[in-house]
Amino acid sequence: MGALAHVVAAIGIIISSISALSHPACYVDPALHRLAAKEFTVHGLLLHNNLPRVCFPQDAPKSVPAAGDVTLAYVTPWNRDGYTETLLHANKLTHVSPVWYTLKITAPKGGFKDGSRPAEVVLEGEAEINATWLQQLPRHIQVVPRFQVQFDTSATLRQVLFFPRNELIDAAKRMALLMKETGQRRGYDGLVLELPASAMPFKMFIQTLSHELKRQNQSLILVIPAEHGLGTSRAFKRQEGHGISRRELQILSPYIDLFSLVSYDHAQSTGREVGNSPVRWLQLVLDKLTGIRTQQSGRPGIDGSADAELDALEDEDEDDEDEQDDEDDTAEGIRGTEVDVSRKILLGIPFYGFTMTSDGVLNTITKTELLSLLQFSMNGLRLNWLDEDKEHVFDMPIWRIWFTSLLGLLWRVHIARERVGGVAIWDAGQGLSIYYDVL
């Protein structure tokens, strides 16, 4: 009788999975309905962590991916579960970006002197490559490893950027050559570029690199910061900086295939007791980058006060940015010819959470620590849904845990599908397996 019950249960799961696949609003098995709600039990989360995908309740935000939507997952060597998860959920992904490579730019021995000696460019990371995983990836997934550019000193950075300009072009050409040689051996489809500073001083570098990659039929994805000062005081904004502006996106867009927006770590960046990526802040970031207001577009997740808030923020910025924008417009000849770059933006989604102690200390928490904590502290946790942030938290006597939940993830995926060209997940090995059910 017990065996028969298991068979019946298995048939039920298969039928529900087929039903989910046949219905455009279905993503995940009725057993997980509660996990996509504002209230659920820790026991349910632990029990259903490895169940098949199911449908979500009627009150959850729903969306379907548009043709051409991108789902990129970063894979790090220090969270090796990412290799397994990307293979298990390969049908949900279009791109993977292994975080293997560092491009180190150093001053030549003896210094630059008269400028006749070029900077030394060394590519590190070959030892991190997981060749078996690369071979197992389905062909439809584009492999675009991240290349993080590092300079040995700030003096070398200034030298390469400004004294003389051909240092930058030379470094870009040598990087493209290294990429070409590595890509031919490994079968890469492009790269993700992460720079150590604002992208605009690297414009010539980006142009040269983009040109060389296009000749090889490879794509270029640029990591861009989100502006954490939005919605905070003017004093904090000046201290934090402005991230990347819409004007800069317009200037860089012809050379970039996709922009990977780092739209998380908000609490760590502001030092405030807020979520990892509060929806209200996300909407303001996208409003400013795209020039398309949330309310005008009928987007969910933010009320009508967003327009007034963004107007105030833009008024504050005018004194600081107008002069520079005018110079950029004249130099680039793009005034009045803005294009919609929203489809090039990938909304960064964290698969990790963080803890905050009663004295304000923040620490990152991934699935291993989260599951262990839930197992041993099940009775002492109080679950809360922060409606403005659209994030779940577990409250304990001495600390609070922010973590990615199915409902919180649903909101962010929905916003990405409504407003931009896709999502970029950091990182594939940090979150629970059920997270992939909503992609």
UniProtKB/TrEMBL annotation:
Signal peptide start and end residues: 1-20
GO biological process: carbohydrate metabolic process
Any GO CC annotation of this UniProt entry: endomembrane system
Domain GH18: 69-439
Entry's Gene Ontology molecular function annotations: oligosaccharide binding
Compositionally biased region (Acidic residues): 312-331
Gene3D superfamilies: Glycosidases
Keyword vocabulary terms for this entry: Signal
Sequence segments annotated as region (Disordered): 312-334
Family: Belongs to the glycosyl hydrolase 18 family.
PANTHER family in alphabetical order: CHITINASE DOMAIN-CONTAINING PROTEIN 1, CHITINASE DOMAIN-CONTAINING PROTEIN 1 FAMILY MEMBER
Name of the featured protein: Chitinase domain-containing protein 1
Lineage: Eukaryota, Fungi, Dikarya, Ascomycota, Taphrinomycotina
